Amino acid sequence: MHRPQTALEALAWRRLLASGWPWRSAGYLLATVPVALVTAALLAVPAVPWLVLTAGGYPAGAVVLLVLLGAALIAGAGPLIAVPVASLARRRLHLAGLRQPGSWAGRDQLAGGAVSWLRARYTDPAAWRQTGYACLLATVVPGLAVAALLAAPLAVAFIASPFLVLVQQPGSSPVALFGHLATVPQTLPYVAAGLVLLPASGYLVTLVAGADAATARALLLTAPDQQLRAELTEVTASRARLAGVFEAERRRIERDLHDGAQQKLVSLTLQLGMAQLDLPPGSPAAGAVATAHVQAKQLMAELRELIHGIQPQVLSDLGLPAALAELADSSPVPVAVDADLDGRLPGQVENTAYFVAAEALTNIAKHSGATSATVTARLRDSLLVIEVSDNGHGGADPARGTGLTGLADRLAVAGGRMLLSSPDGGPTLLRTEIPCNQR
Fold first, then answer.
1. What is the 8-class DSSP label of residue 371?
2. Looking at the DSSP assignment, which residues form a beta bridge with residue 384?
3. Domain boundary among 278, 310, 342
4. Residues 394-414: pLDDT tens digits?
5. For residue 178, what are the CA distances in angstroms to 144, 205, 434?
6. Could you tell me the pLDDT band of residue 119, with boundaries at 50, 70 and 90?
7. CA 137, CA 128: separation in Å to the nearest integer?
C-alpha cells in the first residue's frame, strides 16, 4: 500500500502504530477540544431552552414549547456562530492530512453591506452545513475526542496496576481502577486488558480523528461539483468582462484611426495634389510628388479598409441591418439580406453578429463554389438568430480549418452557439444564436 495521505487511509496501513499517524491524530483531537469548548460556549445561550429541559418535571406542552424555542434560537443564531467556529475548525485539518486544494464553503464578503451579507448568509446552504458541524462540535465530537485520548493513559494504568499494588503502603486503601485491587493476582485481568487496549488506542485515536476530519471537510469545504460550478461561473464572467474590454478598446482604436491618422492622411494627400499642380509638368520634382501622391491615396485606401475591419462605421452609426447590407454589396457572391430587426441591439451582440456573418460570407466566397447566398437576421424570444446559407458544394467541417472554430469561439464569448448543416453536395446552412436583451 502506498503511504497514506489522510488519517482514514492510515487505518488500513500495517505500519500505523510505528508511524506518526497516532501522534498526529492525538494532536488533532487535542486541538479539537478547545474548539469544541468555544463552540459549546457560543451555542450555550441559544440552547438555554434545551438545557432547561435537563431539570425534568415539565408537562408535555412545556417540553414541546421549549424544544421548538431552542430549535428556533439555534436556527437564528447558528449561521452567525458558525463563522468563527468554521474558521477555528479548519485550522487543524492539516494534522489529519487534509491538504487537498479547495475553496472553503461560505466565504463571507461584506462588500454589499451588512444587510446583503446577512441575506446571503441565511440563504447559503454552506452556512447551514457549517451550523450543523458546529452543533456536532458542541455535543458529539468532544465526548468522542476525550474518550479516544484517554484510551492510551487508561491502558498504561491497567498495565502498571501490579506495580501500583506492590508499591502501596501497608494499611492503605486498595488501588481503585474499575474495582478495588489489593493483590497482584487481582490485577492480571487488567494487565491483559491493557495490553490489548494500548495498541488498539492508536487505531481508536486515528479513527476518531479521521472521521471528524472527513466530516469537517464534507461540511466546511465546498463540494467538488459546487467548486467547479463556481469556477466556471467566474471564468464565464471574466471572459465576458474581457470581451467587453476588448470591444471598447477596438472601438477606441477605430475612432483614433478614423479621427486622427486618416484625417491627417487626407490632408497630406490634398497638399501633395496641390503641390503637384504648382510644379512644372515633366520636371523631376513633379514626378516625385506625383508618385508620393499616388502612394498616399493607396495608403489612405488601405487605412480605410483596416478601419472598416476593426469596427465598420456603418455598424456603429446605423446598426446591424445596414452593416449586413453593406457586407452583401461588397461580397463577390450575390447575397440576399433579410434583416427584420426593430431598433438597435447591444453593442457586443451587434459586433458578434456582424463579424460572424462577415466570416461566413468570406468562407462562402473562398471555399463553397456557390453562386448565391442568403443572410437572415431575426430576434426570437431575446435570442438573435443569424442564418447564412449558400447553394455551394457543401462539406464544410470545423475540423478542416480554424475559420469555423473561430466563429464558435467568438460566439461562446457572447454566450451564443453555432449550428452547422453542410452535407456533401450542399446546400450549407450556418445558424448562430446569440442571447440578446434588446435596448
1. S
2. 379, 434
3. 310
4. 887 766 655 677 777 777 777
5. 20, 22, 77
6. confident
7. 14
- What confidence score (pLDDT) does residue 202 get? 92
Same domain, 331 and 421: yes
The separation between CA 8 and the C-alpha centre of its own chain, rounded to angstroms, equals 28
Q: Higher confidence at residue 396 or residue 20?
A: 20
pTM (two decimals): 0.51
Instruction: Clarify whether residues 208 and 236 are in a common domain.
Output: no
**Number of residues written out for the chain:** 439
CA distance 132 to 43: 12
Please report whether residue 196 resides in a domain.
no
- The end-to-end CA distance of the chain, in Å, is 63
Owning domain of residue 256: 226-310
State the burial class of residue 249 (Cβ atoms within 10 Å of its Cβ: 0-12, 13-18, 19+).
exposed
CB-side neighbour CA atoms (13 Å) of 398: 11
Taking each helix axis from N to C end, the angle separating 125-138 and 184-220, rounded to the nearest 10 degrees, works out to 170
290 and 408 in a single domain? The answer is no
| Per-position b or e across 327-355, b if 16+ CB within 10 A of its CB | bbeebebebebebebeeebbbbbbbbbbb
pLDDT attached to residue 307:
57
CATH code for position 418: 3.30.565.10
Environment class of residue 175 by beta-carbon count within 10 Å: exposed (0-12), middle (13-18) or buried (19+)?
buried
Spatial separation of the C-alpha atoms in residues 326 and 359, rounded to whole Å: 14
Establish if 157 belongs to a structural domain: no
